[in-house]
Amino acid sequence: MDPQCGVPDVERWEYAQYGEVRFARPSAFSKGERNVPDMVFRAMNDRQFDLVQTGLTKDASSVPAPLSFGVWTTQFASAGDPSITEVVVVSTRGAVAASLVGLHDAGPVGTDTAGSVTLSSAPGSYVILAQVRDSGKLGRQELGVAVRSFARRPSVSGLLVAPTWDAPTPDRAVMLQHVQRTLEFAQGTTIRSYTEVYGLRPDGETVRYRARYELLRTNAPARDIQLEEWPGATKLEFERVGRAARGGTVIETLDIVPAQLPPGRYLLRVRVQDLVAGEDAGRGSISFAVR
């Protein structure tokens, strides 16, 4: 009945899990002024006051998480469903727990004491919620990620890098056991890269493709990774012939010797061309450092 409140800006919302919450825009209390965007919550009793506190409290842990750590990701096609992408989340230290949060819901939480987890989702925009525990301390990070689609074939996954070891061509699980979590290598290390190539056209029982590698030493990896060409890069090219793998996935690896890796920051990129189909499969890239 107060003429100052004679505006349609006083509302009551009913929350199934909380109850009724009353609120208003400031124009309901400021003689018609409408240039203030805030909401004013008007609790009428103790119960409503408690509900307002609940509604305005961020849904997050109150446990302190001061630990500093890094997170990086790379993406692969799901072996069982080409419409699903597997996002590998790697922490630079400690045991990790992570989940993908989309527009409407959050995916399951993956945990691993070795510091990497694989999360599955449909393509789209997500936020990665990552928590790491190391030496009794906890850390948290949120990281935006665009989950890509591998529905188009042929296609190329992201890259992983690790110190080389004496073993035949690894699968992804073995590679993740050796991956360099910090993406920093000691000078003199031979570095192995790992990529998956999907949907190459078979020629009988074999596939044939060309793998072109570019290794760029750079002071600005975030800038240079966006460039289409790297004029100063070391370039390596191989024509591969292999058996047509079950499921259409071929593993592509390269060992980079220390002579090619003086100290510095590097970008590594691989481009793949299907020689049977005569079309580009795409490319993958990763950044790392040699100290």
How are the secondary structure elements laid out?
Layout: E1 10-15, E2 19-24, E3 40-41, H1 46-55, E4 71-77, E5 85-91, E6 95-101, E7 110-112, E8 116-121, E9 124-134, E10 137-147, E11 155-156, E12 160-163, H2 172-178, E13 184-185, E14 191-198, E15 206-217, H3 221-224, E16 234-243, E17 249-256, E18 264-274, E19 279-290
Parallel strand pairs: 13-19
Antiparallel strand pairs: 1-2, 2-3, 4-5, 5-8, 6-7, 6-9, 9-10, 11-14, 12-14, 14-17, 15-16, 15-18, 18-19
What do these coordinates show?
With 291 residues, the chain is mainly beta. The chain folds into three domains: 7-55, no CATH class; 61-150, Immunoglobulins (Immunoglobulin-like, Sandwich); 152-291, Immunoglobulin-like, CATH 2.60.40. The protein has helices at residues 46-55, 172-178, 221-224; strands at 10-15, 19-24, 40-41, 71-77, 85-91, 95-101, 110-112, 116-121, 124-134, 137-147, 155-156, 160-163, 184-185, 191-198, 206-217, 234-243, 249-256, 264-274, 279-290. The strands form five sheets. Strands 13-19-18-15-16 form a five-stranded mixed β-sheet, with no helix packed on it. Strands 7-6-9-10 form a four-stranded antiparallel β-sheet, with no helix packed on it. Strands 11, 12, 14 and 17 form a four-stranded antiparallel β-sheet that branches. Strand 9 (124-134) and strand 10 (137-147) form a beta hairpin. The longest helix is centred in the N-terminal third of the chain and has 10 residues, at 46-55. It is elongated and about 75 Å long. The model has no long low-confidence stretch (mean pLDDT 88).
